[in-house]
Design goal:
The protein has 441 residues and is α+β, with helices and mostly antiparallel strands. The chain folds into two domains: 5-203, PmbA/TldD fold (2-Layer Sandwich), CATH 3.30.2290.10; 215-440, no CATH class. Helices cover 21% and strands 37% of the residues. Strands 8, 9, 10, 11, 12, 13, 16, 17, 19 and 20 form a ten-stranded mixed sheet that branches. Strands 3-2-1-4-5-6 form a six-stranded antiparallel sheet. Helix 1 runs parallel beside helix 2 (69-85). One of its GO terms (biological process) is proteolysis. It comes from Kribbella kalugense. Keywords: Hydrolase, Protease. Residues 215-434 form the Metalloprotease TldD/E C-terminal domain.
């Protein structure tokens, strides 16, 4: 799907002064499988057009699924009427034009995804299935995404990019136990599909099931589990609006230690280790933003409204109008600096404790207190003396992320590329959490 610049500019002419378009064309090709058989393959296409009009201190928004002139005119009439019904508001200070004149980062789409060859996805499935024992049942999905993005304003701003992403999730089940591997990259040719069977076999190791342990212990979060922690913490704590309004646990603490000194965290939409994108929903260029250095809070992510907290220039983290996760700027491309410990060294330092390969989700219960709840899923083990000794029953954690972030005593040397529904990419290593903040119920 391509978005015509001519149609975009025509829509802006219809909408008039103060209009901004945030357009997303989505094209996804999927192959799903369960019980080691392909169950579905299909293609999805969608165009989403978000419209905002700001005039005389008033602001209204709407959405379309087309750029057809008649549909745009109809929406323009409704928005004009809505503006007339609003009281005049105070004019906001505009973001400096220098940000809009900055070049859009060049992020070339990957031909391996653009071509979207179904035979490749079938080959991936066969490689994983045939590399496992016949008694292992394989489920999951393979997905290719092509995203065409445009942000344009009646004042002259026009940014466009095409992003690509290939991902595979493989879930293996055997004798009532499960293990999973999830890989993603902007270039399908870069995914090491051939490694997945070995990783699943290793995770489905023949260990006994131990009785559930209770109380506090050290916990080793493997990268896919650390992903949920770091992403949710960043979402709840590191946005400029939450900081300014006192809703962040870090409010008023710039320059102070807020996590373990082993934590150095940045947001960088152009780092190839993640899933790059060049600009946000306002058309602001994504800027590399140091957030935490050696445990000290050194920065926040912002949009135009909160650019005053980031040197007068937005960092490129405005979210789309009507976004289901809220309207505040939040991190989009987190990268946690790797440590020096191997996976074996982290396990040895864990001693007797829990090893978590995946957190199914983390749900925020109280943002200011960083209180969350979530469950483990797939390949959760118990370790004794630095060795895995058994499968541990899945469990639910309820904890304060701030306490966990301060209890990090080990950071792995190898990072995984991950994502979340509310974050484009998260690049994280394994994290060893000291006994205390994570309590096994």
């Amino acid at each position: 799907m391509s978005i015509s610049e001519t149609e975009v500019r025509q829509a802006l002419d219809i909408l008039g002064d103060g209009a901004r378009l945030d357009i997303l064309g989505e094209h996804a090709d999927l192959l799903r499988y369960a019980e080691s058989e392909i169950t579905a393959q299909h293609s999805e296409r969608r165009l989403r057009v978000r419209v905002r009009v700001n005039r005389n201190g008033r602001s209204v928004a709407g959405s379309l699924e087309t750029l057809a002139p008649d549909a745009v005119r109809s929406l323009a009439d409704r928005l004009t009427a809505a503006l007339a019904d609003l009281p005049a508001g105070q004019e906001r200070t505009a973001t400096p034009d220098g940000d809009h004149s900055a070049a859009t980062p060049a992020i070339p789409p990957a031909p391996s995804v653009l071509e979207s060859d179904p035979a490749v996805r079938h080959r991936w499935f066969s490689t994983v299935r045939d590399g496992l024992d016949p008694s292992v049942k394989l489920g999951g999905a393979i997905r290719y995404d092509v995203l065409d993005r445009v942000v344009a304003e009646s004042g002259g701003l026009f940014r466009a990019e095409t992003l690509t992403k290939a991902s595979i999730q493989a879930i293996a089940k055997q004798d009532g136990k499960s293990a999973s591997v999830r890989l993603m990259h902007r270039d399908a040719d870069q995914l090491p599909i051939e490694e997945i069977p070995d990783r699943l076999r290793e995770a489905l190791r023949p260990l006994p099931t131990v009785e559930a342990h209770h109380g506090t212990c050290r916990v080793l979060l493997k990268p896919q589990a650390a992903n949920a922690l770091i992403a949710t913490y960043g979402y709840a704590v590191l946005g400029a609006n939450a900081y300014a309004t006192g809703r962040s646990a870090a409010s008023g603490r710039l320059g102070e230690k807020i996590t373990s000194e082993l934590v150095t965290l940045v947001d960088d939409g152009c780092d190839p280790d993640g899933l790059p994108s060049g600009f946000d929903a306002e058309g602001n260029v994504r800027r590399r933003t140091p957030l935490i250095e050696d445990g000290v809070l050194v920065g926040l992510v912002s949009d135009r409204r909160r650019a005053g907290l980031t040197g007068g220039v937005p960092t490129g983290h405005a979210v789309p109008d009507g976004w289901r996760f809220g309207g505040d700027p939040v991190p989009s491309h987190l990268l946690l600096e790797a440590g020096t410990s191997t996976e074996d060294e982290l396990l040895a330092e864990c001693g007797s404790g829990l090893v978590v390969n995946r957190l199914d989700y983390l749900r925020v219960l109280h943002p200011k207190e960083t209180l969350v709840t979530g469950t483990t899923r797939d390949a959760t083990y118990w370790a004794e003396g630095g060795k895995l000794v058994g499968w541990h029953p899945q469990l639910r954690f309820t904890f304060r992320m701030e306490d966990v972030m301060n209890a990090i005593i080990g950071v792995g040397s190898i990072r995984d590329r991950c994502d979340q529904t509310f974050m484009e990419s998260v690049v994280v290593p394994s994290l060893l959490i000291d006994a205390g903040p994570l309590v096994l119920p």
